[in-house]
Amino acid sequence: MKFPFRFINRLNRTHLYNDLIQKQVYAYSTSGSGPVDLSYSSFEKDGKNDNRPLVMIHGMLGSKKNFESLAKAFSMNTHRQVITVDVRNHGNSPHVAQMDYHSMAGDVEQVLQKLGVDKAVMLGHSMGGKIAMVMALTKPHLVSKLIVEDVSPTVSRLSGSTSFPEYFRAMRNISFDQSARTLADVRKETSELLKDVIPDVGVRNFVLTNIEKIDRYRWRINIDAIEANLDVLVSFPSLDTSYSGPTLFIGGSRSEHIREANYPEIKRLFPAVEIRHVKDAGHWVHSEKPYVFMDMVTDFMKDS
């Protein structure tokens, strides 16, 4: 069944539009120990939620904005609360030194506690998929179903001819023109400076979404912390347990992040798994094939 997207203009704070309520919570500081107080958005269709909430967790260098249009569509069309989060050191969430999957799963658990959610469908892309997997494996009472987009519970390959360390080095060397009139101007200029290091225009535009202006133009992500923890982030914790709940892995046919060589470990950790690949999609399945992705996820979430 095909669902039409309802692309809604950007909403701020709490706003009602076409029966859709969005609540956005910002977080800029933390004590530095324990769970991080994440920034998140919550979408609800006029408070009428007939199904388990859906939590959507973005990947490395992303933010909750990556899932905003899909989150609104899922909420409107499946009658459930949809929660998107900025993981630590990304988006509007606090900057801290530590980044590991157990800690990041604890951050998401804290969001659920704040919202009074006892159990939810977990969906994560790439790094966010690993966070969702760790939640399911270590906190199964919180996860009704698990959806993992284009990542395996193994060491991730750094795709492309350029590695993340080179991205970070180039990004750190950028000196933003503080006299620029608009954010669009800064992103255009930065795109030119990064094109040799990040030749793929789609990936480059994705990276450029991390430029913001509050008092000055700057990178929104914590480059130092992400780079310092990169070995941990591309790996996956060794866990001698399994999650028996319904699980869906969605890969792109042009991506190498979910390969047959990964199937034995996926099935060991998630025995009730279904593995599907989307034709002609790469790593960002939800962005490249949004309607196919939405159909797959919606069908999988039935009865939850």
UniProtKB/TrEMBL annotation:
Keyword terms, alphabetized: Hydrolase
Protease as UniProt keyword: no
One Gene Ontology MF term: carboxylic ester hydrolase activity
Domain AB hydrolase-1: 53-290
Catalyzed reactions: a 1,2-diacyl-sn-glycerol + H2O = a 2-acylglycerol + a fatty acid + H(+); 1,2-didecanoylglycerol + H2O = decanoylglycerol + decanoate + H(+); 1-octadecanoyl-2-(9Z-octadecenoyl)-sn-glycerol + H2O = 2-(9Z-octadecenoyl)-glycerol + octadecanoate + H(+); 1-octadecanoyl-2-(5Z,8Z,11Z,14Z-eicosatetraenoyl)-sn-glycerol + H2O = 2-(5Z,8Z,11Z,14Z-eicosatetraenoyl)-glycerol + octadecanoate + H(+)
A Pfam family per the record: Abhydrolase_1
Keyword Transmembrane helix carried by entry: no
InterPro entries: AB_hydrolase_1, AB_hydrolase_fold
EC number(s) recorded for this UniProt protein: 3.1.1.116
Entry GO CC: mitochondrion
Family statement drawn from the similarity comment of this UniProt entry: Belongs to the AB hydrolase superfamily.
Protein name: sn-1-specific diacylglycerol lipase ABHD11
Lineage: Eukaryota, Metazoa, Spiralia, Lophotrochozoa, Annelida
